[in-house]
Amino acid sequence: MTETLVKAPEAAESPNVPRAVKRRRRGSPVVRWTLRIIAVGYVLGLVALPVVTVTQRTFGNGLQAVLDSLQNPDLISAAKLGLFVAVTSVVINTVFGVGIAVLLVRYRFPGRRLLNAVIDLPVSISPIVVGVALILVYGQNGWFGGWLESNGIQIIFATPAIVMATVIVALPLVVREVIPTLEEAGTEQDQAAQSLGANSVQRFFRITLPTIKWALAYGVVLSLARSLGEFGAVRVVSGSVPGVSQTPTLFVNDQYQEFGPVAEQSAFTAAFALMLIAVLFIVVIALLRPKEKTQ
Amino acid sequence: MSIIVSGINKNFGDFVALDNVNLEVPRGGLTALLGPSGGGKSTLLRIIAGLEFPDSGQIEIEGKPATWLSPQKRSVGFVFQHYAAFKHLSVYRNVAFGLEIRKRPKAEIRKRVMELLELVHLENFADRLPSQLSGGQRQRMALARALAVQPEVLLLDEPFGALDAQVRKELRDWLRKLHDEVNVTTIFVTHDQEEALEVADEIVVINNGRIEQIGSPTDLYDHPANDFVMGFLGPVTKLDGKLIRPHDIEVLRNPGPGTTPAKIIRLLRVGFEVRAELRTDTSEPWVQLTRGQAEELELAADGMVHLRSY
User: Fold this and answer.
1) Which is nearest to A92 in space by CA: A163, A21, A179, A148?
2) Does some domain include residue A50?
3) Are the C-beta atoms of B47 and B84 separated by less than 8 Å?
4) Which CATH number belongs to the domain containing residue A82 in this structure?
5) Do A8 and A137 fall within a single domain?
6) Does residue A243 belong to any structural domain of this protein?
7) Which residues of chain B does A214 touch, with a Cβ-Cβ cutoff of 8 Å?
8) Binary contact (B86, A202; C-beta < 8 A)
9) pLDDT tens, A236-272?
10) For the whole model, what pTM was predicted?
11) Is residue A78 domain-shared with residue A167, that is, in the same domain?
């Protein structure tokens, strides 16, 4: 579901071209209509139909069935865990994301290009691999696993591992949103503030943060969506114990695979809820994007 | 002396930006650092501001050693070529920035900011954002912002470089007047010799990381220390192997003591000025005359004249 939130390429960037020129239609009507039908058919088949089906299946047994399935204690605990994991990892990614972005843009140091490349790794690597890697490091037989266990700290098959997996998977989103804005702003405003007597903390809160605020907001919403929707990495490290380490996406998956109408209703209710949240994020992003551009 | 720069060296990799630079800037003066791009003048200004640190050498500002002081502790106002306006803050908040950092009482800030906005003729633009101002207005705002904290030294890095010619001329006159009003020690960097000659009390010519000459505008124009300074400060031409200003060549109809015969190749009228391109046996000088002079001498292409340096 998060795939639909990926930012589209900036098409209408040239500000010098008047609107009327940009909007003028080109090509023959046949080509135009063919392209339109292909585009609409594509979106219908890949996005609209599945969405409609999920909605239909959710409310197929009436509103009462939906409300009843919301009472499922496993669903409630999954929602709580999902919210906790998403908020925690977004906070962590926001703090470190902004830090890394400032580091990459403003400072030149050995290993800078390596760091820059590593940031993007979670995008190209399969989440399953992230999960397996975490187990290899923190699991019972992993590098630190034995030591952690003997000290009574459980990471794998518990909330810490779920948060870690989510943080890794959503790591690039804030960084990649903030970097272009920081680069565009340059360092002169910062230097001007410095010559006016502002120390680094004052400069960060009075100059840097206001400069990147819309890009940051955009990145935060993207990571929130990504964190709530994460499945693969979390599946591997959580163990998916209902009521304990089951996030909403895992709940949907497990309930769907279980037999019986009650489980199926629960799966669709949860899926519908996740979808609704995704739509909400899309609306927020649509509202944020123009502001990001005018900055 | 307000600023004393002694023995400053600065390299960027293999590139020598400043090579043993020594300079004393008098208190209350308006000094221009003049030179070609890449000559090191901006680097020197940034080192005085603390935005850059020297490889070796000392900086002293108002009697205090400042070489390793961070910019926020130097009492230096800095104005950037591209304004460096705080884009998210109104004109008022931009100017108030330094005072807010210093936690001055609100009423005092308000009074000071309004005074400064009046000084730079932006009192009606207090609530605008920088993006709603023209380039010239933004630069005046940046000046007011730098002056708000009452710095001991005001540094301007190519302050009018990003503006068009008309606005640049206006702001130049205005900076001169402003300086006479506030009287803060000011150094500005420029590569425009006209700007330096017109505005500055003292000009420091910098080239290849070295100071070529220091002096008043008249001094430098009339007694350049070397060919580089002469060539950089105004038009030059060559007469019999000697570098000379084209308006320092006397044109005569008849030969006399110390004259050189020359053939007129071309006459060019530029407004009220006439340029005569000539050829002698050994050189091809050009001479700058007024239209009246040209008419009196009855100059015409292919005619012969006799040249003598004043």
Assistant:
1) A163
2) no
3) no
4) 1.10.3720.10
5) no
6) yes
7) none
8) no
9) 999 888 988 899 999 999 999 988 888 999 999 999 9
10) 0.81
11) yes
**Of residues B50, B74, B86, nearest to A189 (C-beta):** B86
ipTM of the complex: 0.84
B164's tokens: 């068009």
**Cβ–Cβ of A198/B97 closer than 8 Å?**
yes
Contacts of B192 (CB under 8 A, 6+ apart): none
Q: A182 to chain B, minimum CA–CA distance in Å?
A: 13
Which of helix, strand or coil describes residue B257? coil
Query: Does one domain contain both A38 and A161?
Result: no
User: In this model, does residue B294 exceed pLDDT 90?
Assistant: no
Q: Identify the DSSP state of B180.
A: H
Residue of A nearest to B145 (CA): A196
The full 3-state SS of B188-256, as one line of letters, equals: EEECCHHHHHHHCCEEEEEECCEEEEEECHHHHHHCCCCHHHHHHHCCCEEECCEEECHHHEEEECCCC
What single DSSP character describes residue A235? H
Residues A82, A35 share a domain: no
Distance between CA B236 and CA A231 in Å, rounded?
76
Domain range for A22: 2-44
Same domain, A13 and A111: no
Any A CB within 8 A of B50 CB: yes
Q: What is the pLDDT of residues A86-111, one digit of tens each?
A: 999 999 999 999 999 999 999 999 99
Beta-bridge partner residues of B238: B243
Q: Which helix (H) or strand (E) holds B110?
A: helix B106-119
- Do residues A39 and A66 both lie within one domain? no
Do A32 and A92 sit in the same domain of this protein?
Answer: no
pLDDT tens digits, one per residue of A207-241: 999 999 999 999 999 999 999 999 999 999 998 88
Asked if residue A102 and residue A36 are part of one domain, the reply reads no
In 3D, which of B74, B17, B23, B60 has the Cα closest to residue B41?
Answer: B17
Q: Which pairs with CB-CB distance under 8 Å and at least 24 residues apart come from A127-131?
A: A127/A165, A127/A169, A127/A230, A127/A231, A127/A232, A127/A233, A127/A234, A128/A232, A128/A233, A128/A235, A128/A236, A130/A165, A130/A168, A130/A169, A130/A232, A130/A233, A130/A236, A131/A165, A131/A232, A131/A233, A131/A234, A131/A235, A131/A236, A131/A237
Question: Which residue in A189, A202, A210 is closest to B84 by CB distance?
Answer: A189
Residue A142 CB neighbour total at 10 angstroms: 18
Nearest to A188 among B82, B146, B149 (CB): B82
Residue A131 falls within a domain, yes or no? yes
CA distance A200 to chain B (A): 10
Please indicate, yes or no, if residue A57 is contained in any of the structural domains. Answer: no
Q: How far is A152 from chain B (nearest CA, A)?
A: 48
Asked if A147 and A232 count as a contact pair (C-beta separation under 8 A), the reply is no
Provide the domain count of chain A: 2
Indicate whether A12 pLDDT > 50: no
Q: Which residues 167-186 of chain B have a CB within 8 Å of chain A?
A: none
Structure-token pair, residue A11: 């098409």
